[in-house]
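pls ignore typos typing on phone
pyridoxal-5'-phosphate + seq
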Amino acid sequence: MELVNLKDASDKASFAEAVKKGLGKNQGLFFPTNLAKFDDIDAILALPFVERSVEILTKLIGDELPKATIAGIVERAFAFPAPLTKVTDNIYSLELYHGPTLAFKDFGGRFMAQCLAEIAKGEKITILTATSGDTGAAVAHAFHGMDNIDVVILFPKGKISLLQEKLFTTLGDNIHTVAIDADFDACQQLVKSAFDDQEVRVGLHLNSANSINISRLVAQVCYYFEAVAQLSSKEREDLVISVPSGNFGNLTAGMIAKVMGLPIKHFIAATNLNDTVPRYLKTGEWAPKATIATLSNAMDVSQPNNWPRIEAIIEQGYLDKSVLSGDTIDEEYTQVAMRQLAQLGYVSEPHAAIAYKALVRQLEPGQTGIFLGTAHPAKFRETVENVLGQPISLPQALAECASKEAYSVDLPNDYAALKAHLFSLLG
Ligand SMILES: *Cc1c(COP(=O)(O)O)cnc(C)c1O
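k done
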């Protein structure tokens, strides 16, 4: 797999290099120079999930890693299912929350951890990442206990749910967590500053594990295939997928799946009030506003990191921009959608509910719709119980960590303070 920096065409990388570097020069994102298409998509869809995912990832990564190595990585990473659950006659939820931290980020996080362990073979690495909620938990669990790899996770203090926080602040060992007194965009900026700082980047062998890492993105392509594989051939004919979006990694992966030949007619980029992309799709003007805290906090992102990759897919002629439309769901409609889903017998959390609402608004007669269920409702228990007025039970993984002690350190939104902390921990 050859990749090129979208900000500097002379900065090229192999898959292994891009996985290790995360970002290219000038904070540019790596993007494949060529996206291959399957000749016989039905044959691919007929395979079981893990076997099919090995085919997809081999197609994307190429012969840089032996197929048997990719197979081992996939088997260890994708050890849980992605079922499609019927919600109405023509609407399904793709449940991506059956992994250890109960959100879709387990797919990318675990695949990335396994790739890095394979590629780095004993070299020392520091993973530095910012989380708006679920990335932190997925990355922390995926790397917990690995030799020679330290993980530092920044999160916006008090802006994510307590259970979300407990899932990654209670592990200890090689997992270090820092509560920053600011919002997620500020945390993301601190991470970028660290990558721009030669002394830190080289000295601590930094690697990023948020949705900009190419390994996470390619892993996510696989569950779009798994969704379509569970539909009848009739339902595959006119399919719309609604993606609850924050940093837009999930949607990027879906669009790559379509480029590879997966029969998806249309995508909906569903956001909360942090609606930079839906406004951009309507007006052509890129005008991020200050980030607003919402019920769907994992999508409280006003400057989505992955957007240049979606632009690249369109600009390079892989897809027409008409395959994508946006929709913004406000706080009230998020709750309305959760109640409507509950009436249909489907308990959901705010992120999935936003995707559902946008889908219902845009789905046309005769079409089949899928919305992505990005997190388990219990992960947002307080909100779900408040909105639905009914108690929900905690899965065992959450119940166990809810009672454990958290290990995070508090820091102000100040790069010098972060840098000093990093060297005191790891230097
Ligand atoms: C991260 C996250 C999202 C947003 O996904 P992106 O790939 O950043 O667009 C949506 N829902 C949940 C529950 C998440 O954790």
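The mean pLDDT is 94. Residues 103, 105, 133-134, 211, 244-250, 298-299, 351, 374-375 surround pyridoxal-5'-phosphate (CB under 6 Å). more later
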